[in-house]
Amino acid sequence: METKRTVFPNKLLPYLFVAPQLVITLVFFIWPATQAVKSSFERTDPFGFSTQFVGITHYIRLFQDPLYLNSVGRTVVFAVAVTAISMGLALLFAAAVSRLVRSSQFYTTLLVWPYAVAPVVAGILWWFLFNSSTGILPYMLRYFGVVWNANLNGTHAMILVIIAAAWKQISYNFLFFLAGMQSVPHSLTEAAAIDGAGPLKRFWTIVFPLLSPTTFFLFIVNINYVMFDTFGIIAATTNGGPNQATNILVYKVYSDGFIGLNIGSSSAQSVVLMLFVIALTFIQFRYVERRVNY
After folding, report:
1. Which residues contact 171 (CB under 8 A, 6 or more apart)?
2. Residue 129 sits in which domain range?
């Protein structure tokens, strides 16, 4: 079988096609990352008029700071909870919608809508729902003896941001899980049904193993989402409070750098966060991907 190969009449044309993406990557990703690494080795005055090279001083102080270490622990809890909830509910919704025949497109549209909502809007929405004075959910919780106040209770605040962040990501996960389920050959599930396997057994023994590439991809995407894209939700709901209870790593970079004006420490935190995500992604591709069946 002869393989077709695309030939460009002009040798510069392929580079022109990729040039816009390369420029965007250099301007908005490579250059800021380089500046963050450079700034992490410097002490900068609050107005940015002078800098002094201090080596790894910021990194040493960072890992000696109990507030930063506590923020790491809170980030791990936040990441695990958001990833588990968003992927678990998305898988449940995708399994339910895939069984529908006539109204599947209608339910798919309803479940996709939250993904179009900006993180700040999602945070404000859930902040209103959980507002201790005017929110409907705290009013309903009073009937169960729960006095909800995310402004004073750190556990309540963490639950609030976890729910808001997970709700925002469910739609994205749902789309990929639904597409993966629809690509599973019906002949496999029909053969299992003929052999007497129930719906739950067919799902766990046939459908879910075939979704392993999709699950692996979504796991990586969700970890990156939690680490970087949840800043707007924290800023709109709790501002890292109360008493640093929701001050996860991505928000601490902002609060120390833009509010505390400690540019060097903030840059060091951003570098550590970037290296942590890169290392986690490498571990996932190096060890977890071995269990994926393509």
Report:
1. 90, 111, 112, 113, 114, 115
2. 54-291
